[in-house]
């Protein structure tokens, strides 16, 4: 885990860093799942490995899940109390507007669900930017805009972690967020 960039937007403390989501201590971590809710690869595979075998049957039982929707399960063996599973869009350049809106809907649904559960902290991976091919650079303003708007509204959420697995992705995230939100 590298040093976090720590920023403030409204009532949210944002922490942007390189790390492994499965090791994050937060009320909830977000899983980038698929519509069938079949445990897959990427962060989904890592979460299932770390959460232990009780997760997979429960995860499957919650499918199918629409793109942009979110559901909650226990964190089982993870340090996080809960997992919020969402399904990102598969990137298609010819449908840029639609997939952009769907990606924002993922972040929004996860934040709304965490707030509905009165959680105070949530940690996100870079949803859709792995197997689903969403270019990181195009995802950044979309994620930032959801967080900025959410931070202005009253909710239980105080801390949002943006956790990038790859060093290059973390560098892009930190560079973008430092400029967009101003370093504190
Ligand atoms: N911690 C944080 N981020 C991670 C970790 C980790 N341990 N492992 C990977 N990432 P992906 P998607 C990053 O492919 O694009 C699965 O098979 C990774 O570097 O996990 O939404 C599902 O079952 C990337 O930046 O999710 C679906 O079928 C980000 O997590 C499909 O992949 C997301 O990459 C979903 O594809």
UniProtKB/TrEMBL annotation:
Limits of the Macro domain: 1-181
The protein, known as: Macro domain-containing protein
């Amino acid at each position: 885990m590298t040093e976090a960039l720590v920023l403030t937007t409204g009532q949210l403390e944002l922490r942007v860093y390189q790390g492994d989501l499965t090791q994050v201590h937060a009320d909830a971590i977000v899983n980038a799942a698929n519509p069938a809710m079949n445990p897959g690869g990427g962060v989904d595979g890592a979460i299932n490995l770390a959460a232990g075998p009780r997760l997979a049957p429960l995860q499957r039982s919650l499918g199918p899940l629409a793109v942009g929707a979110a559901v909650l399960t226990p964190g089982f063996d993870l340090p996080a109390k809960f997992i919020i599973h969402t399904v990102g869009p598969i990137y298609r350049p010819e449908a840029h507007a639609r997939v952009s809106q769907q990606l924002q809907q993922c972040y929004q649904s996860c934040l709304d669900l965490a707030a509905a559960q009165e959680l105070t902290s949530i940690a996100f991976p870079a949803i859709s930017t792995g197997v689903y091919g969403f270019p990181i650079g195009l995802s950044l303003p979309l994620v930032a805009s959801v967080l900025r708007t959410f931070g202005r509204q009253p909710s239980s959420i105080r801390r949002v972690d943006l956790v990038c697995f790859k060093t290059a992705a973390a560098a892009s995230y930190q560079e973008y967020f430092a400029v967009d939100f101003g370093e504190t």
